[in-house]
Specification:
This protein has helices spanning about 15-25, 45-55, 75-95, 110-125, 145-155, 165-170, 175-180, 210-220, 240, 255-275, and strands at about 1-5, 30, 35, 40, 60-65, 100, 130-135, 160-165, 185-190, 195, 200, 225-230, 275-280, 285-290. The protein is α/β, with parallel strands linked by helices.
């Protein structure tokens, strides 16, 4: 079984717009990153509770908190721990079991320090009953296959991993090789694709991110999986907070809702081609192998 999730803030800034986009595209899970113009890490308790109520009323479950934790220079890691605690509190208010995190900028050659701080972050997460999931973002310590494998092999208690194919392409990593090496260690997968030669972001399957191979591997393994759409097909509110580079896209879309729907359609086409079909079960949309 495959379940679809999404960074729905790419469809719109307002939570109501995000909910509508998820419902229109039959996506029952959300990775919460931006809510009504605020980063999830900056929500008040009342704002987090209100977001959770609105999502649950729409039969949408918070799969993960798409936090910015660890996306700071390593020298700021100690001071960053207060923000780690706060995000864990917000995750609990959103009834999220996991939080997406990173492994620090300006950290090359400082692997021991990175692992030490990640371990402390995971201790804090454990105290709050949540799990941290490391994403292979460009320019952080865990951006290439050797460094991610180093983090995996460190066996940091409570640390899981998110596989983002486009980020690997942008770092010059052979995504097919990374999939072979990290498939079993990946708690879930981000769906973003890019053309290596041009750097243009494209719908899933149109670039060099090996997304079709990913789906084939999931099907062959028989495992349940969650695929989180993070399409980056059109600039959206808050993009500048998560990426300091200019977004390069191949295709033009009139609205963010249109680009979000195009991303969803492309992923669903790959699922159909791999023999999956969409069904609704107990109020949630899932994909089952025929």
């Amino acid at each position: 079984m495959i379940r679809l999730c999404a960074f729905a803030d790419e469809a719109g800034e307002a939570l109501d717009t995000q909910i509508a986009a998820l419902q229109n595209n039959h996506i029952s899970l959300i990775e919460v990153r931006g809510v009504n113009g605020k980063n999830v890490a900056d929500l008040t308790d009342d704002e987090a509770r209100a977001a959770y109520r609105a999502l649950r009323a729409a039969d949408i479950t918070v799969w993960s908190v798409g936090s910015p934790l660890g996306k700071v220079p390593l020298q700021e890691a100690q001071a960053h721990l207060d923000r780690v605690r706060r995000v864990c509190e917000i995750a609990r208010l959103l009834h999220a079991e996991r939080v997406r995190v990173f492994s620090f900028f300006e950290s090359e050659g400082r692997g021991a320090e990175v692992k030490s701080y990640l371990a402390r972050m995971c201790e804090i997460a454990g105290e709050h009953g949540v799990v941290f999931c490391h994403e292979n973002e460009k320019e952080i310590y865990g951006d290439t296959l050797p460094h991610v494998l180093e983090l995996v092999q460190a066996e940091i208690k409570g640390l899981q991993f998110v596989f983002d194919p486009a980020n690997y392409v942008q770092c010059g990593v052979d995504t097919a090789a990374a999939l072979e090496a990290l498939f079993d260690q990946s708690a879930y997968f981000h769906i973003k694709d890019v053309i290596a030669a041009t750097g243009q972001l494209v719908p899933a399957g149109c670039g060099d991110g090996s997304v079709p191979k990913m789906i084939e591997m999931i099907a062959a393994s028989g495992r349940d999986a969650v695929l989180t759409l993070e399409p980056h097909l059109k600039v959206f509110a808050g993009y500048g907070e998560i990426d300091n580079t200019e977004m390069q896209t191949k295709y033009a879309y009139k609205t963010n809702e249109e680009s979000f729907a195009a991303a969803a359609d492309a992923l669903k086409a790959l699922l159909v081609a791999c023999g999956y079909s969409e069904i609704k079960k107990e109020g949630a949309w899932i994909w089952k192998k025929a």
